[in-house]
Amino acid sequence: MPTFLDQVVEHTERTLEKRKAAMPYERLAERLEPIPRGRPFSEALIDEGISLIAEMKRASPSRGPINPGAAVADIVRAYRDAAVSAISVLTEPHWFKGSLDDLVEARRTVDLPLLRKDFIVDPYQLLEARVAGADAVLLIVAALGRERLDDLMRGAHDLGLDCLVEVHDEDEVETAVEAGAEIIGINNRDLHSLEVDLETTFRLLPDIPAGTVVVAESGITERGHVRDLEDAGVDAILVGEALMSSGTPAEAARRLRD
Q1: Nearest in space to 164 (alpha carbons), one of 193, 190, 135
Q2: Residue 251, domain extent
Q3: Is the residue at 28 inside a domain?
Q4: Would you call 26 a catalytic residue per the annotation?
């Protein structure tokens, strides 16, 4: 049986062909603005203390609807008011109910660094991210393999995008490190089974070289989790469900940080 990751990659590749046909790469590239100076996403993750990447997320495959009626502008303003370091915008439409329009709206509303969180498998998606206003993209090692990861990291660099390179086990950490990843996200959720184990971060952390920015993802729901991760040397956390399901995202973000 195909795993969740197998299904979502296959679905992404199929729908991507339709978008390419409707808007060829060359036409989309005409919408590019000059590459911004600096690296706002990576720079936001090395502030003093642990940084919070707060996520705009309406649903998930493991939980179903989380906040299906969430308005992007309201959510990202709430995150800005809570002084988060950066914002992740889920743009995957089928399982997470997001869209590139959400990323465009987020950029129109706030000046914070933005991460396009999706299942990126093609350089076309990097261009989409930049045109929509992203400062960074998520690259999932389990969905790519080494060769495609290298290609996408180079493409992202050429477009002025930072890469959050996501891993879940020791082999994927080795791949990310060998590829030269500067920001590594440890996903506590197994994208094949969708099970979550917060110990994944603590197990893999020693395998990541000093100087690499480390982001812990998934399963972070309370201040105690954040404190333990910070004490272990994690630079940033990426949190979606705990904030989006709270009813008061700004207050939930403040509680995690303090």
Answers
A1: 135
A2: 4-18+38-257
A3: no
A4: no
